[in-house]
Write a structure and sequence with these properties.
With 246 residues, this protein is α/β, with parallel strands linked by helices. It has eight helices and seven strands, in the order E-H-E-H-E-H-E-H-E-H-E-H-H-H-E. It has two domains: 7-175 and 215-232, 3-Layer(aba) Sandwich (Rossmann fold), CATH 3.40.50; 178-213, no CATH class. The protein is 45% helix and 15% strand.
Length: 246
């Protein structure tokens, strides 16, 4: 497939899944703008591909998101990928922890989607990179899971609003990914449980029926599918990339 003539904006594009998405969409011919809070990683991704531009933006800041879209110009594809996770029992979670998880994982998606939708004047694709935590519960991650469940409510509701337009809204819900974020989770689990990092990693892998972590390029392939001809009827869905985990 080709996305020549399309412009995509990807939040959280400086590392992990966001960087993989940026490269995949640029390889498909799209003009890609990535954003994040750290300039150096963004610049590294953009410098490696002429079709990618980098922009600093905190997606929890309403004015910053508006400035981002103004700077990038009209886009056709918006991928709300920026996210963060923490792990702790709920009784040890502070209000600040709760607010932080909602801000980046839910409010950031709301602000990104709203600004993207405001400037769509025809064909458009809104995609949230969520998690299997948005489809089920996980112990020790209640604020994160609550935020991701909120993303699914947003996606399903907005999909109904735009259903008569050439616009779709969907979420990709991967299981544990082979990324920097999971590496940090492994280190936290090992530190809190006394397991080795290898044992902690194996425990995360065992949560999938395929007994593995998932690759960022699998998420990118699903995102490209949602932007391809033939995907027009896929709207309001949380697409699990989890090897059959329910």
């Amino acid at each position: 497939m080709t996305l020549a003539g399309r412009r995509a904006l990807i939040t959280g594009g400086g590392s992990g899944v966001g960087a993989t998405l940026a490269r995949a969409f640029a390889a498909a011919g799209a003009e890609v703008a990535i954003c994040g809070r750290r300039a150096a990683p963004l610049a590294g991704i953009a410098q490696a591909h002429p079709g990618i531009s980098a922009h600093e933006c905190d997606v929890t800041d309403e004015d910053a998101v508006a400035r981002l879209f103004a700077a990038v110009g009209k886009v056709d594809i918006v991928i709300a990928n920026a996210g963060q996770s923490t792990s702790a029992p709920l009784v040890r979670s502070t209000l600040a922890d709760w607010n932080a998880m909602l801000a980046v994982n839910l409010t950031g998606v709301f602000l990104t989607f709203r600004e993207g939708l405001r400037q769509f004047d025809g064909w458009g694709r809104l995609i949230a990179v969520s998690s299997t935590a948005g489809l089920r519960g996980y112990a020790l991650a209640a604020p994160y899971a609550a935020a991701k469940h909120g993303v699914m409510g947003l996606v399903r509701s907005l999909a109904l609003e735009v259903a008569r337009r050439p616009v779709t809204v969907n979420a990709l819900c991967p299981g544990f990914l082979d990324t920097e974020m999971t590496a940090r989770s492994v280190a936290v689990i090992a530190g809190k449980t006394g397991r080795t990092e290898a044992e902690a990693r194996a425990a995360l892998m065992a949560m999938s029926p395929q007994n593995r972590l998932f690759r960022p390029d699998e998420v990118a392939a699903a995102a490209l599918f949602l932007c391809s001809p033939g995907a027009e009827g896929v709207n309001g869905q949380g697409i699990a990339i989890s090897g059959g985990e329910t």
